[in-house]
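Sharing a chain and its predicted structure for anyone who wants a worked example. Both blocks are below, sequence first, tokens second.
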Amino acid sequence: MLAGSLSVLLSCSGGGDRAAVDSGEEDAQVGQVGDAADSGAGEGIVHTYAPTYDAVWNEILVPNCALVFCHAGSADYLQLPSESAGYASLVEVRAEGPLCVDSGLKRVVPYEPDASLMYLKITAPPCGSKMPLSYGYPVTLDPREIEQVRTWIACGAFDGDAGCIEAGSAPDATENDAMTDASSE
């Protein structure tokens, strides 16, 4: 009983073994990563890779992070019990975990994936473990999922299904100044 409980506790990610993705092997089923079908996680997920919070929530966070022994549990620093609570605890919120609190990073900084701990934790974390974890070990998301998170943040990290009007980052000050100058003429 204890061994079974311990293995569930250590297996934060229901995403299964992603060695096939890491080694470049393709999965036979579209939208299926590793042995997610065997673990029960990821069943019925259709990956759109859309850069929207709805898609990030349903395609990445639910099957990999919002699990009862991970970020959906009540004892973790990042709370993902529901889509709306997840958004509220991600965007413009400082990291609270003991290994990242001193970094001063926010979990998601709209328009700035390289300043967002969520993106850094799935690519090259400056603190704590790489995410997601599977049986206590970091695994790598599919490169399309990583790009999906990066693009969602770069486009402003809007809630819901508001996507990018134009892929990229926020207009910079020179573009805003040009628009202001043009309107004042």
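Comments welcome. Residues 46-161 form one domain.
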